[in-house]
From TrEMBL:
It is an enzyme of class 2 (transferase). The chain holds residues 48 to 237 of 241 of the full protein. Belongs to the class I-like SAM-binding methyltransferase superfamily. RNA methyltransferase RlmE family. This is Ribosomal RNA large subunit methyltransferase E. Specifically methylates the uridine in position 2552 of 23S rRNA at the 2'-O position of the ribose in the fully assembled 50S ribosomal subunit. Its EC number is 2.1.1.166. Its main location: cytoplasm.
Amino acid sequence: GFRSRAAFKLLQLDEKFGFLKRGQRIVDLGAAPGGWTQIAVDRSKSDKGGTGQVIGIDLLEMEPVPGATTFQMDFTIPEAPARLKALLQGPADIVMSDMAANTTGHTQTDHLRIAGLAEMAYQFAVEVLAPGGTFICKLFQGGAERELLAQMKKDFATVRHAKPAASRQDSSETYLVAMGFRNVAAPAAA
Ligand code: SAM
């Protein structure tokens, strides 16, 4: 079984977009209790061990997920992206963030906070993603994500909003799925 109901959101996003594949290197931001991590391991690693790699980080302690490397740290401190990069054995195929700060009850504050986490996740993603890679992150509709969206559309072939059925209909939670990373930082071919 899965450790979280959130697991079904990732499965539904993958059903729609088909980004999970064998042999991938996947970074899971806000991984606890580990539902997305379980799916990432299941889909990326072959029965024979395979070449996939799954790394997860969360503010909270989490039970280890066999086949994944997870650690407890606040993603927003500089040590966190550095540690993730040190663990990566090559460019990432997927950076996915289900991070959500504890809600304050003040809608605007909550939206800004989650948009801030999404922006940091994005900055990290463009530094580690392989060409063709995928970035997924949780957002709230009405959040301060307009600039982020504009940037994403430059950096990726496709950027889509999606609300998986497993996401409560009365919540404004939504996901952004960006596929086909263009790796604009790399020198263009002559
Ligand atoms: N995808 C997970 C799963 O399937 O089990 C559920 C993730 S849960 C909705 C959001 C997680 O984001 C929480 O565990 C929370 O601790 C984490 N989080 C929030 N802010 C964070 C931060 N600054 N750094 C790391 N993790 C953070």
